[in-house]
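Lecture 7 notes: from sequence to structure.

We start with a single chain of 136 residues. Read the sequence below before looking at the structure.
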Amino acid sequence: MSGDLREGGCFCGRVRYRVAGEPLRSAVCHCVSCRRTSGAQSVAWLTFPSKRFSFVHGEPADYRSSDEVSRTFCQSCGTSLTYRQDEEPDSIDVTAASLDLPDEFPPTRHLWLEDKLAWEGVDDDLPRFEQGGLPD
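Now the structure, written as tokens:
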């Protein structure tokens, strides 16, 4: 595998994906829907062009978490894998922790801090946004 290609997948190994290149952006999201669909206090996401992402093994379940958002997850173990907005069909967000080597892409900002759980500490110097702004 080229250094340009990275792989990831779910906890049980039934679903695997591959992505090429560097992410367009990265963030930790604290919104209610990310928290509820992952069962975690926040979720780190990496955004890639859709054309550089593919599932290479297994077929994830697809869930419409809102009218304009589709999320995928493993039907067997429940691992959250991707997030797509209908209004941005050329990009896909991938859960950073589902990569085989998630340390390669640390987050660069925090989003939706207005929804952050009171007990979650955010003790870094990353830019913070009360809502979901993704300036680039």
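The domain at 5-115 is CATH 2.170.150.70 (Metal Binding Protein, Guanine Nucleotide Exchange Factor; Chain A). Keep this in mind for problem set 3.
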